[in-house]
């Protein structure tokens, strides 16, 4: 069988919500990405600081061609360019940034979020109600004791008896949505055709809303009501009946009112004593509305939950047919806003309505009274609306093309007298969103979050721009202007660029003075932060995505991958090309042969100050010219081992991008091997730790002190194994398991600290580290002020028995915290953790506490390195306790890390002692803006974290690493230097321009194309990429038509429908710019693009890689669809002056018109260089003739619409996927030319993509359907039920849940040479094929890569029989051993959907025998188990030990099978 593994998390944002979740004071944004729930906190960052940091990071890279942020935001962030930008006046506003608190992968598809105010949550914050597909609800809240979410109730409405009539469609076919009462008294889930589930919540006192007690006056109102404390009994019920929730019940909507037969949408309204909702519905089925007008009704109901009764408050009839949404409007406007495709209608609490038509169709589609604003010409399908300022009656609307519009309500007292719309000008930020959004949530007074499924999600901030005359006056009067500006600076605001640092066109503000409803000047919008997204992935290809010149090519040998995964992603104007690689590929600035180097330490030391400059303060005062020298690293110490094993250390002076030997100093190379080096005493002293002593030097390497390692009592000379420096302390761990702690004092002398705690002397220590605690996480009493530098150094020591001791230096009298169980790697490590006797332990080689993060935010993590180089990351957190003492409040939570290190037992060569002496982890404070930790060794990796992600372990591409250090010089800013196991040293940077790492756990570079990208292909001979795009243009009726006379009258339409028109673009990866564009005909769109190796000459049989483009010409539903096949070659031309990358163009080779049907799929076929074209309801084999025509030679009639065709390369075996009728397995022969149908799937399968999967001597067929199911089929004519093979056997079905695959590709799989899979097939072949054909060999191992509209990537890999049995058993054990959030069942999530195709139409030949695809998402959680449980499970499921289980998992999980990426 196979294993399904998710490579990257989903990136499309489907839902969002803002609420105080972590505690009552917090401001949290909850973001749902299909099946991933993320909790963010907000952080305010000064705009000045944010721009300065970005400029600092980008200054050394300003020669590159573009900056995506400037492109994406229409130039509003031009000041990000750093060195090249114009000098601007300082920006005193703030940016709101998002910081991830936690994320949870859920075994369900989130379909709704709602906030529930509650007084009984453990954290004091509010609860969160989650709705899942199809009709499940879970309520979760934050548990500060576990630093995670806990599920407090689950509700399930998918039972048969709730589904209404037997002929009703399956639940998944209806739009199910969640709505919650603003007063948190109840929530409603609409599911099925007309069912409403009401979940009621109880406040502690039904009569008095506890939210309203803030203004309770005891003198007038009597004694304040006391909240009863509920105690939980043994069976989980509460002693008083007031739990947070009580039972739910299901209402049939026609029981509320007989006219609620076809509900459209509902929302709970504000400002009602009882839960009250407005619902939009119709008595007429949506399919019967043609020719009818104004069928919809809006009704408002009040619910009496105790009596399960309702009262109708008001009803408004005759509403336009195209209304699709109800939005509750908060006070002071109140009422509800009904959104239609052509109009907006507001209905207040008395039933009075005001509407506005926003396009010319509003008059034609409805007789309802509307104010005419048809000159706006807006289309409101897919728009989102969020409140900007409820007091001012201002609401922001984002249209489905990303434009911003402002809805303003005119309010007289409490009466709404009208509403109006206006578009926000692009100069004022009206175009900062590239495409439509799916969800909006207000984050604060002047910012909101706009989440999108088709582009990056943005945090948008706004400010009001004042008119020049009335600025000071209005500012004094109006408190709503949120600009942090001092009074004396008001005169400086004469210029328009004070907010943005650039000129804003004054035309934008001219209308603001007289615009109705613009209270205090025009709103200006800008982007504060973004969540990266590669959704939806429309198409992908593999190709070489790096292009270097000769010098760079030599530098980058060994550190760039052979291929990259390049995908077309994004919708509309957000269309992009994303380049994804498995590992970090450094940008190499210098490459040197340095075989003897075993490590590097760079440092920025102060020059010693001459006596004449020293003032009264002694060594601490400095001249100005001595301060500036700190910025760049000046020196580098390199320990070396020569061929004879002789150990020395050398010092080098750093130059622009390299280094040169430093001579004439008191540095002693022969003193031995350097264990650690750094600076102390405020950069005044250079410290070199040798195995036998510590040497101190001044800033010019004049020797000032030697501290020998000598035990005065015994006379022994212990050698130093490990050292850690945190100014002003140094910690040494020696080979006799003792520790040495010293401090540097004002006189810049190192002195050993007295080890007052006897345990410090008697305990055998394994390893340790020092950490400067800037956040106060390890302080005894947490305060906001933070400690002074030097007084917040914390020492972590790990004893040989595995106890973690924490000391607050310089106090060595007793540890402030002791935790015993670190080698058991428990999910939560605390001071009172105790493991059972005899529990298996891990061997821990090294621990390090370090800050991980980026410029926006960072926090400490405990990083544990095991003997096999695996990494366990613990996040420290404090629980709220009365004492705030560290032993009771400090806990460490294990974070998920599915990455398993590459581990080889043998050294690279005999002399290489890299394995014996494991190089220690290296803490790096700033590499390309990241605070990171580097792990050298056989599996060199960075642990990277951005403010919006959890820490991710990313491998550095190339060989094992002997030593590494950060490297910050003028020629290589914020870079690093490392030496690999082959003796090559490289000075490198991590590329950051448009490139992110932690977001998807892989290297991701995103290039904006600014068009709707549909398909992509790589052309290997020219190393270019060809993309098919669509742009929108107004539809013109055909001019030449004589039959339709009435079309002449429609020629003058002002509001024309928009249709797509295709473009084919050629992209050069050297600069990632479009170098050639070909416009297709009007109404012609690109359906598919493939690179095929076609025969171009019938006489010479010459073959050539050409690009085949299949198109569709759709001129409306009453004209037949035509298609074209275009064949292009990429030719070399003379480039444009100054643009060497424009040296290639597309040249048309063939153009074949297909009179009936679109060309939907193309593939290469056979051995003679022909192509298989799916055209309409036929699949035709065509050959390219020299005159530019495509000659058909064979065909096969198909059913409805071919979504994909695939050929097993060179065999003539073909698969064709039909959008309705499933999969056809066919064969093609060349003598004579013909196509033969072998078999087809028996079910009505809506197939999106199909792929062959060779597995040893078996050939499987993998089909993906529109429900997200992966079906494994097989052709077996010997099976008795297959009708001689006419029916394909159905092996199994597996549900991918939220991430249904829409594109797939069969790729070669890389496996370790000792893989069980390879062994089994080698044995199987030698045994079975000896009689038949001695030359036959099994198919090379293969893997299928899937992409989905949510931006997730996944693989399907075949397993050997022993692997399958063990891993399927292992998933069951992991399933029962780990908690599952929101009460969801991963096993049920992966089983085929009962309402899907397998449930409705069982397969004709079910040959599954109960075998399922293994769920890799559960296997990826293996590392979350504690060590003892892992050992127990590994033995139980048949592995020899944990290491064997780990090796098997490393083979099947992650991108290990795609090593060429």
Question: What descriptive keywords fit this protein?
Answer:
single chain; 1461 residues; mainly beta; 5-stranded mixed beta sheet; 17 helices; 8% helix; 41% strand; globular
3D structure, described in words:
Helices cover about 10% and strands about 40% of the residues. A 5-stranded mixed β-sheet has the order 85-86-87-1-88. The chain is globular, with a radius of gyration of 34 Å. The relative contact order is 0.08.
How do the strands and helices of this protein lay out in sequence?
Elements (H helix, E strand, L loop, with lengths): L1 E5 L8 E5 L8 E6 L2 E11 H12 L9 H5 L21 E12 L4 E7 L10 E6 L3 E8 L4 E9 L20 E4 L5 E6 L3 E7 L16 H4 L23 E8 H4 L5 E7 L7 E7 L13 E9 L4 E11 L3 E6 L7 E5 L2 E5 L5 E5 L3 H5 L5 E2 L11 E6 L4 E5 L5 E9 L2 E9 L15 E6 L2 E5 L5 E9 L5 H7 L44 E10 L5 E7 L6 H6 L8 E6 L6 E6 L5 E7 L7 E3 L20 H4 L7 E7 L5 E8 L4 E3 L12 E7 L4 E6 L2 E5 L5 E6 L11 E7 L2 E6 L4 E6 L5 E3 L5 H5 L2 E8 L20 E7 L4 E5 L8 E3 L8 E3 L13 E10 L4 E9 L4 E8 L7 H4 E5 L27 E6 L2 E6 L5 E4 L7 E4 L5 E7 L7 E6 L3 E6 L5 E2 L6 E6 L3 E8 L4 E11 L23 E11 L4 E7 L4 E12 L7 E11 ...
Parallel strand pairs: 1-88, 21-22
Antiparallel strand pairs: 1-87, 2-3, 3-4, 4-5, 6-7, 7-8, 8-9, 10-11, 11-12, 12-13, 14-15, 15-16, 16-17, 18-19, 19-20, 20-21, 23-24, 24-25, 25-26, 27-28, 28-29, 29-30, 31-32, 32-33, 33-64, 34-62, 35-36, 36-37, 37-38, 39-40, 40-41, 41-42, 43-44, 44-45, 45-46, 47-48, 48-49, 49-50, 51-55, 52-53, ...
